[in-house]
Amino acid sequence: MTLRDVEARDFPVLWAWRNAIHDRRPLADHMTWCLTRLAARETVGPWRMAVDASGALVGVLREDYRSPGATEVSIQVNPGRRGKGWGTRILATLPTDRDLWARIAPDNVSSRRIFEHAGFSVVEGMDESHGHVWYARLSGRLDPVETS
Ligand SMILES: CC(C)(COP(=O)(O)OP(=O)(O)OC[C@H]1O[C@@H](n2cnc3c(N)ncnc32)[C@H](O)[C@@H]1OP(=O)(O)O)[C@@H](O)C(=O)NCCC(=O)NCCS
Question: Which residue CA neighbors atom 34 of ligand 1 most closely?
Answer without folding.
Answer: 113
